Amino acid sequence: MKKALIFTCILMLFCALPAEAQCAMCRAVLESEEGQAQAEGINDGIVYLMAIPYILVGGIAFLIYRNFRTKKN
After folding, report:
1. Does a structural domain hold residue 5?
2. Is residue 6 part of a domain?
3. What is the mean pLDDT of residues 23-44?
4. Taking the alpha carbons of 7, 9, 12, 14 in that order, is the dihedral positive or negative?
5. How many domains is the chain built from?
6. What is the DSSP string of the chain?
7. What distance in Å separates the CA atoms of residue 64 and residue 50, rounded to the nearest whole number?
8. What is the CA radius of gyration of the chain?
9. Which of 2, 27, 30, 66 could be a cystine partner for 22, CB 3.0 to 4.6 Å?
10. In a domain? residue 25
């Protein structure tokens, strides 16, 4: 069971598809501009905002894991 879970996680890491982090309206407005610096900045900001909840949930999960691990010892 554990081997299958690890294999699935590794497989999912290698099967990632590229994605763009813009809504249709933002994309249409930013594509009409000459320079792409602003579009790249918008994309970076969206990815940054998307990453924060995952980092928080991961941190909480780590704290819970560490708490249960110390109680067993």
Report:
1. no
2. no
3. 73
4. negative
5. 1
6. -HHHHHHHHHHHHHT--------HHHHHHHHTSS-SHHHHHHHHHHHHHHHHHHHHHHHHHHHHHHHHHHHH-
7. 23
8. 19
9. 27
10. yes
With 0-12 / 13-18 / 19 or more C-beta atoms within 10 angstroms meaning exposed / middle / buried, residue 43 is: middle
- 36-69 residue pLDDT tens: 777 777 778 888 888 889 999 999 999 999 998 8
For residue 21, the tally of other CB atoms under 10 A from its CB is 15
Amino acid identity, position 36: Q
Tokens 């928080």 correspond to 56
Does the residue 2 lie in any domain?
Answer: no
Tokens coding 44:
């970076």
Q: Give me the domain span that covers residue 52.
A: 21-72
